[in-house]
Amino acid sequence: MDPKQAGDRVNTDRREAGQLARWARSGDLTAVYVPPVEAAAMRDLTRAHEETISPLKDAKCRLNACWLRQASRKGGRATWGPAPLQWLAEVVCPTPAQQIVCQESVRAVHEPTERLQRLEQARREYVHAWRGVPFPVAVTVRSAIGDLTRVVNPRALMKCLGLSPSD
Fold it and tell me: Rounded to 10 degrees, what is the CA torsion of 31, 37, 39, 44?
């Protein structure tokens, strides 16, 4: 990039086009990948999926704290499956206020869980043809890279994914 001189502060399309042409001739411009609509849609699905995980973990933490304060214990190994959540929904607390808080905590776990299941199903339907690696890995990598033909070798793939510490 050239240093700006005092009179070069005026931006016009003509000046900018001339500067871009000079940079293109000198090889100073790098190619940028603009994902097609399908890849952008998969990125959106993946982001929505990832954004749902944190609120779900927080809701589970709050629900655990609520039931620990009530000194309620459920036997069994599964913590967040349908049976323990059903048990939690049926437990009666000593006061109405505590009952409301605990029932709302159960609902706060149900809602992101259902959203996560819907998003996971949508991702599975969207990428039915991708094979060879586990589904979440395929979705994340494919949506991050976009067009696989732009990756010429494994080193370029690692660089694209941010997995090459030297780059």
Answer: 120
